[in-house]
Design brief:
Structural class: alpha+beta
Number of helices: 3
Order of helices and strands: HEEEEHEEH
Strand content: 25-35%
Shape: elongated
């Protein structure tokens, strides 16, 4: 018996939601991979900076909100102290976690599990609002830690 291919209905639901709510600041990027990934890309304004973010949907149970906080922020000279700082932030917040990439870039990731049927675009929007509020209060502290 052939395995049934799962489809990404979350992307369709999110696209309908952003159209209905006139959220015309997202660009839809269909990846055309085996996970049926669709990324809704945009930017967030924080402390006078424009930082990229994306809402990543696919045919798994996960939807990811990913914000690129900064590029090459983790360096040999600040690595231990800065990663300790990020881990302290991670212990303080439930809905998102900071991740350091191999190249020193820092991402803030939110993982929202749901099935296609239970996916709620409003939850994505609420969590995104929480992320923006958090970054508006913490971004300058993160940058300060990165550059010390």
């Amino acid at each position: 018996m052939a395995e049934e291919k799962r489809v990404n209905l979350k992307a369709q639901k999110f696209e309908a939601y952003i159209q209905k709510n006139n959220m015309n600041f997202f660009n839809k990027n269909e990846v055309h991979d085996e996970a049926d990934t669709v990324v809704f890309q945009s930017n967030i304004k924080v402390e006078g900076q424009t930082i990229p973010m994306g809402i990543i949907t696919d045919n798994t149970i996960y939807t990811i909100i990913r914000v690129q906080v900064g590029s090459q922020l983790v360096k040999e000279g600040n690595k231990a102290k800065f990663l300790d700082y990020l881990n302290s932030l991670n212990r303080s917040y439930k809905v998102f976690k900071y991740v350091a990439a191999d190249d020193g870039s820092i991402f803030l990731d939110c993982c929202l599990p749901s099935t296609n049927d239970s996916f709620d675009p409003e939850i994505v929007r609420v969590v995104l609002d929480v992320v923006v509020d958090h970054l508006n209060s913490e971004y300058k502290n993160i940058m300060k830690e990165a550059w010390e």
